[in-house]
Write a structure and sequence with these properties.
This protein is α+β, with helices and mostly antiparallel strands. The protein contains 1 helix and 4 strands. The model has no long low-confidence stretch (mean pLDDT 86).
Length: 91
């Protein structure tokens, strides 16, 4: 039986057929809890926004990919709403 990972996703380098094709393709799976959070926010007139974390990984066959983990946004009491990126992840 295949292992199930809810609230996770994966991106692989895309075999580009044209310049306009995406660099990466993959999918993401959400739990009912995360979908409910998004729907509740939309109904309340708020943005449907999630935090997204990613890790470089290598499959058993040696294929490199990015593993993704979406989550409800973390809000620290008294913290500013906007966060600045600390470094460029593409270098």
């Amino acid at each position: 039986m295949e292992k199930q990972y809810t609230d996770s996703g994966i991106l692989f380098a895309n075999q580009k057929q044209s310049e306009k094709a995406p660099d990466f393709k993959g999918d993401i799976e959400f739990s009912a809890e995360v979908v409910k959070y998004l729907v509740d926010n939309l109904k309340a007139g708020k943005p449907a926004k999630l935090d997204l974390a990613g890790w470089h990984r290598k499959s058993a066959k040696g294929t490199q990919f990015i593993s993704l983990k979406p989550s409800k946004p973390f809000v620290r009491e008294g913290a500013p709403a906007n966060r600045a990126a600390s470094k460029n992840p593409w270098e």
